[in-house]
């Protein structure tokens, strides 16, 4: 058994389980057909023996998986986090006071990586796409977030440990339970596995009552104490505050940066010459009072968002530059494949838009640009996918949504959301503020157009639905033409109709006096409309953490008795581009090192000079762990060596040229292979740690 492979064990176990199930059916048949007690007992004993075999095989399989790397993800993650904290990439905030969950400080190398990622984001999106960048306050008046729906709807379902009062996010407990069972219980029956997968796929559909029932059904308790849990109830994730000393002007720390762009639409549209399409961008802090922060930088209470709001005519969502990305091929996970539990696969972006898998060209364009952004940072393209939202995940007004997910030791992590939000946000702020957030298109000649006119009666709707009046009216106003005409036909034929209100999660009965629906022909000299919004939203902290994991590896030192940590950051995001080392402590070498440092500073290349007497091998190892891609070693007064981190190859370059060589390769104008072809390879025993 010791030499049996894991795959063979799985096959044997499946066979034994099938035999046991067949034996169980045989017993039921014998009992139903009135077989003798001795015959039933003999068959039952065989079944018991089979179950013992199944149990033994199950334990052996679980043990074997553990021995062959079942805990590798946790061990790998711990290695990454230890290196990050030791080298001060990030640390828990307020550490000397035992810290606060969900708050972290970036140290010097972490700040540099973050600054480089944001700098490249600005270049890749704001500069290339001619976006309008804004910077809005973090403190937001309540009225703004009331209009956007955050005050009423920005909630998660929470449960409490009934004895200690510790709070947990209910859907996370259920998701973790199902995920744990699917990953670790290798003997899980197929029916049960499918059930757990269905639960995970429909988590967002579950009401508080349904979620509570599942927690009880699976016997889920508080993870830390094993105490019973309360029933789930909603908790608003925004940090509340008051603006001014009176306390009469309530506000919140913004949960996203997007609302600052929406409320400035009118001025931005004017600044852009009253032309569409255009995009506005914002980088800034956002705040969410997470119920139970965990997973390091992946789920925190204060974080950096980089968001784009691309405003476009809802009748024309083509993009003039779509052809630039249409041939890209990358992993996509359309909702149809998810429904059928099929694996994700590589699709060509142009084909996906053509076939209607992706709703429109503008959405597809930003997916392609996001893919290029991520892979340029150093994210492994084989561990990056774009997953389409299931119908139950999308807001009722959204046309299509995709998440860029990166695989990490925690599983697939949503790092970018790319959504076609339709015209919901601008309409909501128009209604609440009374300011028309619209665009105009002037026609060369007047056009006769047929317009759908939906006019709800606020009085009649309010009398029947009272507190739900607004939700019913909103649902009526956003009806598409086909649905609206069907409602009209039913009202005229029957006097009433069942109408589903997404925000209520149920159907309501409308009567003829509650809404007027008609089509009117008009001559128009211009089209006035509320623009649709395509919104790519980047969680910078999540991207950076996944980049840390994708860049981390270990390799043995020269003696082979120790593993050295390395972060293989591309020069684009490396916290320090190069280091300068005198080979030995010698005044003339130190002077050359200082001259090179000045040249690097003039070339605006971040670097670190180290004139300590530590061995060159140890200095290389220290900088490898910081992810520094190049090291300049001064071993003469007229030439130096340049070492590349991952290959450990070195070339010899003159002192006068070295700053230009490093700038050339860190700016991406040349590759390391180009440098190797231009300069002589240097071989030294000290080059290999």
UniProtKB/TrEMBL annotation:
It holds the Pfam family HGTP_anticodon. Its main location: cytoplasm. CDD domains: GlyRS-like_core (cd00774), GlyRS_anticodon (cd00858). This is glycine--tRNA ligase. One of its GO terms (biological process) is mitochondrial glycyl-tRNA aminoacylation. It is an enzyme of class 6 (ligase). Residues 215-556 form the Aminoacyl-transfer RNA synthetases class-II family profile domain. The keyword ATP-binding applies. It comes from the Eukaryota. It comes from Amborella trichopoda. The keyword Phosphoprotein does not apply. InterPro entries: aa-tRNA-synt_IIb, aa-tRNA-synth_II, aa-tRNA-synth_II/BPL/LPL, Anticodon-bd, Anticodon-bd_dom_sf, Gly-tRNA_synthase/POLG2, GlyRS-like_core, tRNA-synt_gly. Homodimer. NCBIfam families: glyS_dimeric (TIGR00389), PRK04173.1 (NF003211). Its EC number is 6.1.1.14. GO terms for molecular function: ATP binding; glycine-tRNA ligase activity; transferase activity. It is found in: Cytoplasm.
